Amino acid sequence: MLILRKTIQELEDWNGDFSGGSNTTSSLQSTIDSLTSRNRQLENDLQRLQLQQRNNQLALERLDEYEETISQLQDELDQERSNKKQSQTDKDEDVNHLVFTEERKRVEELSHNLEAVRRESEEKSLQIENERDALRNFKHDQLKEQENLRKMHDLQLAELNEQIQSLENNKIDLINQLDELRQQLQSRETQIRSFQSSTATPGSPPMMSSSTHHRQSEDDRQQLTSIYEQLLTLLLGEYSLSDNVALSSVERFTNLFEHDDEGEQELEEILDFHQRAPSRQSLASVTPGEKQQLIAQNELLSTLLTEKEQELIFLQQTEKTREEFMENLRLNLHKSETEKEMKQTELNDIRNVLDEKLRENSLLKKEKMYFIEKLSEFERERQEIIHIAPKQASPAPLTIQGISQ
């Protein structure tokens, strides 16, 4: 259009120039012809331009339609993307929420288990400390008891040794007294024999009648029987009187001390003295005073034998008591060692359980840290999805230049 107007303006100018000048008619005619052809060309150009303008107008209308359609499609695409993103976001949020809830429950359960393990570990530690204190107290008490038992045992051993030494001394004294008594009896025997030799001269009348001699013999037999019964009673009834009732006095004493090794030598000396003693006929000539003295000496000998037997019984009882005490002490020591081993075994078991609980506690802590890291990672991914979704929901619009390109 601008070109056409410019051409018309030039024609008008040329027409003015042509009306103003009349000298060059031929040139004007040529110019007119030229202008006519030029005008026809311009008209053709104008028609062509108008056609192009209409085509451009149609193209613009089509572009407007295309742009509107593209805008609608873009809006639909954006809406579809937004819906899809929102659906995916909701789905991811639901999944993340479900996973987060499950992980939270698991972490809470692990925390609860960890707290329970910690409390149990503290209880086990406290129990171990109590067991250690009890074990230390038990060891201290056992050592103290063992020390007291050792002291008491040493003291009792010392007392027993003193008693044994005292009894040995008493035994030696008794043996000496028995030796003195034997010497006295031998002296009395010598006196009786010398008295018999002095009184038993040929043709001398007997000093006692037969009835008196028989009575004294009966008294001697009863005295020997009484001594035998006393000794039999002292020897704890090992032999009975009915077993030896048909035996003589010498045989009874021999059978009575047949199994007594310690008193065998003394018994032989006593029996030897009895065999060397005067016969019944000689005893019949002994004065009543000497006879009473012999009876008293026999009673003293019986008393000494009784005391000696009692001392031997006491020594046996003391030895038995000492052996029982030693056996009880060994049993107590063995029991203490057994209880100590049981306590040590129980302490080792408690230590093993505590170590196992500590290892489980460490594993639970590691697992808890792992789940906390996973939850943190899920939370970061969820935040990134939330921040990226608005940017993708508003894309940049397409321009006409971009579409035409």
UniProtKB/TrEMBL annotation:
Keywords, ordered alphabetically: Coiled coil
Biased composition (Low complexity): 197-211
Biased composition annotated in UniProt, kind: Polar residues: 187-196
Biased composition (Basic and acidic residues): 79-93
Coiled coil: 291-367
Chain segments carrying region Disordered: 74-93, 187-222
Protein name: Uncharacterized protein
